[in-house]
Design a protein that fits this description.
Elements (H helix, E strand, L loop, with lengths): L24 H9 L3 E6 L6 E7 L6 E6 L10 H9 L3 E5 L18 H16 L4 E7 L1 H10 L7 E7 L5 H11 L5 H19 L8 H5 L6 E6 L8 H9 L4 E6 L7 H4 L1 H15 L2
Parallel strand pairs: 3-4, 3-5, 5-6, 6-7, 7-8
Antiparallel strand pairs: 1-2, 2-4
Helix pairs in contact: 1-2, 3-4, 5-6
Length: about 280
Amino acid sequence: MAVVPGKKSFVTNGTVQLTKSTPQYKQKLWYKQVKKQHWQLRSAKNNYLLRANYIPAKNSAKTVIILHGYMSNKENMGAYAQLFHSLGYNTLLPDAEAHGQSQGKYVGYGWLEKNDVKKWAEQVIKKNGQKSKIVIFGVSMGGATTMMTSGLNLPKQVKCFIEDCGYTSAKNEIEHEAQALYNMPAFPRFPLVEILSGITKLKAGYFLAQASSLAQLKKNTRPMLFIHGSKDTFVPTKMVYKNYRASRGPKQLLIVKGAQHAKSYEHNPALYARAVKQFLAKYAK
């Protein structure tokens, strides 16, 4: 269940207006102008209608599923779509439950969304064929969703994952937010989070501690690239080291010096693109 966000520069409740002063303007303009297909499916729970944009590449069996962050939507992921498309990937950009054009009542912090991501992967295979090679990529809550998805029993066509600044668990992240953003002391912070977790269980069907990237990563044997900014204070950089250690598959870690939350690609696009390209060349086969 979602916590109402405070004012944060990286939380985009809606679509950011595109101007020439917008960071990564050319990539985002490409996304805005490129021809898109519109896909949809029903959510794994509650039968909500979920919508996505799909941008085909030329004669490619490779597809990346791009997952946005909390209170964002697919339209804000254009720069990432351009990056993967330039590397020869079909790009599928879903709106998560209760975001963008998708139906839904509660935000699942990755726990509810992971099962929808599996369904999107199955739809890619159904539409593009058994020879599909699928990469799952996400930023912030999308990064956590990526990690939580990695612990599922996924089709063999899912080759690897890239997560950018995802948290260790929803509970850990909300506790951190309460302290860092709202200066809430340990009491009443911890009892309030437990109360919120109980309400979330009643309303959305899961405890906050269940929404754990760490627990799911321990089940993962596929390759994963972990990316985090060194100046991330929202999802603190220390979380990525715990996530990295938890994963059981081949793994790589990129810390982008000076980058704040969800700003690693914007802060150092050449480094980011090179790391992604090299990782995919090695593992998305």
